[in-house]
Design goal:
about 375 residues; alpha/beta; globular
Length: about 375
């Protein structure tokens, strides 16, 4: 007698793959739900991407050799973009070269154009060195608020001998100052130890960075859901500059308009809001050179604060944002690609302010420690644990 074979289900590769995908999705959802999600907002060039880089340095073992190599070309392009913008704007500002021998170098750079050279040769770097030593170029650099120049121009031009070397490898400081326009949405994941006083363990963080230029803001709403805290960055040193995308709009004014949108957004009502009054080092340098915010914000003349002119200026900028958090009136907002809010947020909210220099790792480490505890306290209070 032949016994029937037991019924064995045939292996289905598609079904197996589908189950594996389902398991991965469930794990991703659990990770997403368990993580504290931070969203970096602010206008273009306010320092959001620099904060992302700092989190990598502080919490993810920094940059490896391959990542540093990748930055070399970007840093050299930052040098070219800087010297090109300076010499390009000398004529409109009626600033001549002081050394006639540098005319050839000026023409060399202008002929290359903003896109940069195909190869950064020793001849190229020689022309840049000669120009950067020229007193006329330095005078034009001092008037950089009248045209568009990246913040790191002086930093990189001063280090041209090092950056020109064939064995050059960027330092952390170089990478932090390397300027690349952010497009789309970037995300970084990292873990931070939780103090024993707050139940200990390790907390996952997901941080999102989105482009700050007007054309990028329509993408912001994609990452609003489930955000625990907004880090809103303000480039305080930009008080005397206009936007790249709209040369008629003051950068600090744009930041105030954008902050009010974020503050009143119903989509972000549940998120804690922390304002980083950033680029304090550049602000102090500008004020020490005699640049005054009163030319752009006349109400500064009536503002009283203790300390020197820099301290008064930074406290004045803070007051501009604090005043917006106290307003109760609603605004009629017309939807557009740059405006994402509906003015429905009427509940009382808290807003925390920090003076920061995003390129200073020690400064960011200290601020993040305070902000981390603040966020944890806020979340634990909301769920009734703390």
């Amino acid at each position: 007698m032949v016994l029937p074979l037991p019924c064995v289900k045939k292996y289905d590769e598609n079904e197996s793959n589908s189950k594996q995908i389902d398991r991965e999705i469930k794990q991703w959802i659990k990770s997403y739900n368990d993580a504290i999600k931070l969203l970096l907002l602010g206008t273009g060039e306010s320092g959001k991407t620099t904060i992302i880089k700092q989190m990598k340095i502080l919490h993810i073992q920094g940059f490896n050799a391959g990542e540093r190599m990748e930055k070399i070309q970007h840093i050299r392009h930052n040098i070219h973009e800087s010297i090109y913008e300076i010499v390009h704007n000398m004529s409109p500002l009626s600033i001549p070269l002081r050394d006639p021998r540098n005319i050839q170098s000026q023409q060399y750079i202008l002929q290359i154009g903003l896109a940069g050279p195909a190869d950064y040769t020793e001849e190229y770097f020689d022309h840049v060195r000669s120009l950067w030593r020229d007193a006329g170029v330095r005078e034009c650099f001092k008037r950089a608020n009248e045209y568009q120049l990246i913040d790191s121009a002086e930093y990189f031009l001063d280090r041209i001998d090092l950056i020109a070397k064939s064995d050059y490898l960027p330092s952390d400081a170089d990478i932090l100052r390397c300027r690349q326009k952010t497009t789309g949405i970037q995300k970084i994941e990292f873990k931070v130890k939780v103090p024993k006083s707050m139940h200990g363990g390790v907390q996952d963080f997901w941080m999102f960075d989105v482009g700050g230029q007007r054309g990028e803001r329509k993408k912001w709403i994609q990452v609003f859901e489930g955000i625990h805290a907004i880090w809103f960055l303000v480039a305080c040193s930009d008080f005397d500059q206009n936007l790249r995308e709209d040369n008629t709009q003051n950068r600090l004014t744009e930041s105030l308009v954008l902050f009010q949108d974020v503050w009143q957004s119903r989509f972000l009502l549940e998120a804690g809001l922390i304002v980083f009054l950033n680029k304090q080092d550049l602000l102090e340098n500008k004020v020490s050179r005699g640049n005054t915010i009163a030319h752009y914000f006349p109400q500064y003349d009536n503002f009283e604060a203790p300390g020197n002119e820099y301290n008064r200026t930074k406290l004045f900028i803070k007051s501009l944002f604090m005043d917006l958090t106290k307003k109760r009136e609603r605004r009629n907002i017309t939807a557009s690609a740059e405006r994402f809010v509906v003015s429905e947020a009427s509940r009382t909210r808290e807003c925390y302010f920090h003076f920061t220099t995003a390129t200073d790792t020690d400064n960011v480490r200290t601020v993040f420690r305070d902000v981390h505890q603040m966020i944890l306290t806020h979340i634990l209070n909301n769920i009734g644990v703390y």
